[in-house]
Amino acid sequence: MALQALQSSGVALRKILSHFPEELSLAFAYGSGVYRQAGPSSNQKAAMLDFVFTVDNPVAWHSKNLKKNWNHYSFLKVFGPKIITSVQNNYGAGVYYNPLITCDGRLIKYGVISTSVLIEDLLDWNNLYVAGRLQKPVKIIAMNENVALRSALDKNLRSAVTTAFLMLPESFSEEDLFLEIAGLSYSGDFRMVVGEDKAKVLNIVKPNMAHFRELYGSILQENPQVVYKIQQGRLEIDKSPEGQFTQLMTLPKSLQRQINHIMDPPGKNRDVEETLLKVAHDPDCGEVVRLGLSAIVRPSSMRQSTKGIFTAGIKKSVIYSSLKLHKMWKGWLRKTS
């Protein structure tokens, strides 16, 4: 599986992991603190380390973590692990973040997500939130032998490739492809307007081309719909209506539903397959797919950010937002200087 290529041997990351309950089906680190980025996030040593912990039993995990790390939680801790898990699963994008935590001398943020919720997001793109994180290079620190999870991780990468193909021309570069893939989970994200550096996607991809190749190389070589010229770093895909229909039919269910909703006029009630066949013949097929992505990401990112006020607490939310705005301001100054 492509993700195994990025398995981390980082002692520092595993040491941080030792401060938390061990019952994890998957733990990974991501972002500018792990992979070098261009722009305002280029200082890796000063960057916050971002983690996601995937757990089979969130109530039991939070119960143990409250005993070990009581001060990591906002006021919600007084309501206990069941309420914390309810907030985690039922609001936002299904992930509970504790930000601005000092651990082993590093500032970290960690999110907790249920294994079943993550698998659904990886397969169907219900929120394209943690699934979106896993479409970019990450450092996998721990992963158990959950076959369903491993299969879903692989399917998420293949779905990212197919979706990007639909938004690209017949011939394009590796960089073009990886920019589209890295941008999938930012489509319609309101934080790209307020709080994030506008060049974020480019800053992620440019210094990490080798990591993207490692993540997607085997998938591209195995894909029958693409000619992958590795030496030239170029790709060619089938843009015929038949080729696009095949790709559209393999998209995650939530994206197919959003495309159907966008294209199905009131009163027509077309089934999804009929709508996708129509989109496959549409010259604006790529833009329709992009609109479908935005319809998933925009509400998901807004709900998760609102939820962060409660899970982080007012004080930490203000500090965290200030750090994001400062980073955006630095990015703007770089462009204008």
TrEMBL record:
<keyword id="KW-0594">Phospholipid biosynthesis</keyword>
<keyword id="KW-0472">Membrane</keyword>
<protein>
    <recommendedName>
        <fullName>Phosphatidate cytidylyltransferase, mitochondrial</fullName>
        <ecNumber>2.7.7.41</ecNumber>
    </recommendedName>
</protein>
<keyword id="KW-0443">Lipid metabolism</keyword>
<keyword id="KW-0444">Lipid biosynthesis</keyword>
<keyword id="KW-0460">Magnesium</keyword>
<comment type="pathway">
    <text>Lipid metabolism.</text>
</comment>
<dbReference type="GO" id="GO:0004605">
    <property type="term" value="F:phosphatidate cytidylyltransferase activity"/>
</dbReference>
<comment type="similarity">
    <text>Belongs to the TAM41 family.</text>
</comment>
<dbReference type="GO" id="GO:0016024">
    <property type="term" value="P:CDP-diacylglycerol biosynthetic process"/>
</dbReference>
<keyword id="KW-0808">Transferase</keyword>
<dbReference type="InterPro" id="IPR015222">
    <property type="entry name" value="Tam41"/>
</dbReference>
<keyword id="KW-0496">Mitochondrion</keyword>
<keyword id="KW-0548">Nucleotidyltransferase</keyword>
<dbReference type="GO" id="GO:0005743">
    <property type="term" value="C:mitochondrial inner membrane"/>
</dbReference>
<comment type="pathway">
    <text>Phospholipid metabolism; CDP-diacylglycerol biosynthesis; CDP-diacylglycerol from sn-glycerol 3-phosphate: step 3/3.</text>
</comment>
<keyword id="KW-1208">Phospholipid metabolism</keyword>
<keyword id="KW-0999">Mitochondrion inner membrane</keyword>
<comment type="function">
    <text>Catalyzes the conversion of phosphatidic acid (PA) to CDP-diacylglycerol (CDP-DAG), an essential intermediate in the synthesis of phosphatidylglycerol, cardiolipin and phosphatidylinositol.</text>
</comment>
<dbReference type="GO" id="GO:0005739">
    <property type="term" value="C:mitochondrion"/>
</dbReference>
<dbReference type="Pfam" id="PF09139">
    <property type="entry name" value="Tam41_Mmp37"/>
</dbReference>
<dbReference type="GO" id="GO:0032049">
    <property type="term" value="P:cardiolipin biosynthetic process"/>
</dbReference>
